[in-house]
Design a protein that fits this description.
The complex is a heterodimer of chains A (112) and B (111).
Chain A (H helix, E strand, L loop, with lengths): L4 E3 L2 E4 L5 E6 L6 E8 L3 E9 L2 E5 L6 E5 L5 E5 L8 E8 L7 E2 L3 E5 L1
Chain B lengths: L3 E4 L2 E5 L4 E7 L4 E9 L5 E8 L4 E4 L2 E6 L4 E6 L8 E9 L5 E2 L3 E6 L1
Parallel strand pairs in B: 2-11
Antiparallel strand pairs in B: 1-3, 3-8, 4-5, 4-9, 6-7, 7-8, 9-10, 9-11
The chains are: A mainly beta (112), B mainly beta (111).
């Protein structure tokens, strides 16, 4: 069974640009969540989707948005990039809240 | 607001030693707790998931315990090996809410 797939693996963008990251969950998983990981702040929750509905949202500015498609694939978008958005963005999928989270290898975003 | 703390931040042990990693959380109203390992530059690998009604879970050389009333969990690693070197993170899911992660314990097992 394929794991969680995130694309692209690496991204370099300049300030002010926007970026879209993609996540394909494990087959059958309907819950997808996104996290930002930085050395200073650790792992921080961005948002969670279940069956195309956003269930929870973390404490991030409106520049960060996401969506989930009917096949459970998810995308997150960051607009008007700032230097502080440089981070490893991780996606995780699960069957539901009482099931383990399974993570992808992340997208490393560098903003210059 | 749920806060998760992991102590120690880093740990170095010789191969073969048994060790315990600690995780504490401030709000006992949790749905479950999960332990992960993370290798450099990679995502997180799920190790053990403990539901709020459970006291412990075991997988191979790993045993995780949960004491909700005191807000603590421990991850016990038996007979450590160099391949166990990684950062170990615990995460709690508050009731009806998103996962909260600790900062992790960086483990080094020396041959």
């Amino acid at each position: 069974k394929a794991g969680v797939t995130q694309t692209p693996r690496y991204l370099i963008k300049t300030r002010g640009q926007q970026v879209t990251l993609s996540c394909s969950p494990i087959s059958g998983h309907r819950s997808v969540s996104w996290y930002q990981q930085t050395p200073g702040q650790g792992l921080q929750f961005l948002f969670e989707y279940f069956s195309e509905t956003q269930r929870n949202k973390g404490n991030f500015p409106g520049r960060f948005s996401g969506r989930q498609f009917s096949n459970s694939r998810s995308e997150m978008n960051v607009s008007t990039l700032e230097l502080g958005d440089s981070a490893l963005y991780l996606c995780a999928s699960s069957l539901g809240w009482d099931s383990p989270l399974h993570f992808g290898n992340g997208t490393r975003l560098t903003v210059t | 607001k749920q806060e998760v703390t992991q102590i120690p931040a880093a740990l170095s042990v010789p191969e073969g030693e048994n060790l315990v990693l600690n995780c504490s959380f401030t709000d006992s109203a949790i749905y479950n707790l999960q332990w992960f390992r993370q290798d450099p530059g990679k995502g997180l690998t799920s190790l053990l998931l403990i539901q709020s009604s459970q006291r412990e879970q075991t997988s191979g050389r790993l045993n995780a315990s949960l004491d909700k009333s005191s807000g603590r969990s421990t991850l016990y690693i038996a007979a450590s090996q160099p391949g166990d070197s990684a950062t170990y993170l615990c995460a709690v899911r508050p009731n009806n809410n998103d996962m909260r992660f600790g900062a992790g314990t960086r483990l080094t097992v020396k041959p």
